[in-house]
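Lecture 7 notes: from sequence to structure.
We start with the chain below.
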Amino acid sequence: MLLFAASQLIGHWSVATYGTVVVWLSNGIMAAALLQLHRRPAVAVLTACFTINLFSNLLRGDPGVLMWVNALLNLGQAALAALLARRVCGAALDMRRPRRLLAFGLYAAAPTVTVATFVGYGLVLLIRQSELTTVVLFNLYSFFIVEFLGLLLVTPILLLVARAHRFEGMTRAQAPEAIGLFGLMLVVTTAVFWQDDLSVAYLTFPPMLLMALRLSPTKSAVALILLAAITGTATLTGHGPVHLTRLAEVPGLEAVSPMLRRLGIYNLYLLAMVATVLPISTVMTERRQLETRLRARTLAAQEARRTAEDAAAARSRFLAMMSHEMRTPLNGVAGFADVLAGRPGLDAEAVRQARQIKESSDGLLMLVEDILDFARGDDTLTNEPLDLAAVARKTVATSLAAAEARGLKLTIDDRLPAQARFTADRRALRQALHPLVANAVKFTERGEVVVRLDRAGDGVCIRVSDTGCGIEPSVLPELFEAFAQGDASIRRNHSGVGLGLALAARHVRRMGGRIDVDSRVGEGSTFILHLPFERAADAIEDITPAVETAPPIEESDRAPCVLVVDDHPVNREVARIMLEAFGCEVVEVCDGQQALNAVAEQLFDLVLMDVRMPIMDGLEATRRIRAIPDTGEALSIVAMTADAMPEDVTRCLAAGMNAHMAKPINQAGLLSMVNRALSGDLPAARVTLEAEAA
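Predicted structure tokens for the same chain:
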């Protein structure tokens, strides 16, 4: 209300002093009040403004009808501008955005002033019964410019000032720079508009543009108000570049004073200034806001990435620790069961019980591996040229004993081209095939299990078929869900937690394939893997003459000497008993430092090295043994550890070990490793740069 009253006083003073008004501010103030205030306060403010407007018209001496018409037109113009602004600028009325500022000018202010101009002057012409002359057209133009400039200058500025809190932190300039920019603008504007010699109004644009680029829209709006006050006062008093403009001779405008005609030029100057500075200021503010959001989101994304990496690292540490801690006691259980089952002199019942212990430990190991594999998630595939039949044979080997115990025939039907190789991930393929074969053996009482490999289109088709009990059709939709089971009741015949098929399906998806099921109850099931493996270069057939292999351990002239390095006494005892059964001489030590001392004092054919040990771990001990001249380079070192995750295998090989053997161990696997070491069949050891740096 105070602003409205002040605008009325400025209008009276301008008319009384100079006979005209440069900018009509009152309607813009009322429109801003309608847009900013709630309904009840807005009605109260408009009522007060209407009353002040009537009183102002009365003081000015308007006739009775025109006094009311003028006040009603002002009120109607403000109401219509506010209504249109609500429709085109959105409920937030956020003038920080250039699009909304442009929409207010084109779709709210311009139509409103056009309607008010024609209605107002139409009523005046009707009341006074005047004709449409050149002077009337000039007055229409002047009225439109004055009213339009008032709405465009005042309403957005007041809304920006009312929302000044939204611009905190959006200004690039600090207080000293802002003060300097305001001072520069005031000095340049005053110098340009209080002189009568040069038409240099364009010099006022650079300071204002600089302020628009560096300051917030609120400060730019304040600068526009100050500029309008200085330039308007100077123009009304006959100073400035506007008065240097040569006026064209227009018939019918002889009665119009040069001052009024030049005010149209000034209004266009002010309109150009508003239409330039405010949009640029809002664009720059929006850009700074976007930059701030981008920085904040970048920091948030970086923090989220660090959190995810920490979580992944914690999960990997947890899985590695759980794998180690579960395999360590299993090594004792499975190892001693294996030793007992092979001990001579035991009665058949004792042998059967020992084998039951071994089978139970194998089942527990499979369950542990499935759970850890499921919790681990998807690793990156490492594709290489593979003999798929060889991978299938190695996968099937783990289920041969269970198949023989059931009297089943477990075979591989290889229909792939001879010497053919395909690009695939060895570990993912084995993890996909293993649960399918294990399930086929588990659910088949008699008959056979066949793994068939064949070409199919651009890839490979692997079928795992059995003659078992089959799968109920109602179970098929959820067959590959984690922890889903064909029979989850307490009367079920088969054990398991329902992870095998879920893991198989996940690994098939990782390799870009799909898995189908063809099953008939009572007749058996066939799991079909469609894998898009690309054909690689065929393997080169080895035509070199066969060489004699190393003799078996028992035929050697000297008993092989094996160093067993393990901090757990049960693990050492299991390994010693198995190795002595092969005719090996065994030396036991319990940490890496003792292993280093033993290798320096005695010649060994093989070192079975644990990884997690006190004083010195197995990786460091391996690196130091490799550094021993002459002895260390040729010595066979095999990791015999419960650290069985893929990264653990990589770490062991990188430290200089020849091979990796995961606990729990068995006699057959240990004998094979010893024979490979004695025959020189182990891979060559290499110490990577990363391992040396560690």
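Points to note: Residues 486-497, 542-556, 689-694 have pLDDT under 50 and may be disordered. The chain is about 60% helix and 10% strand.
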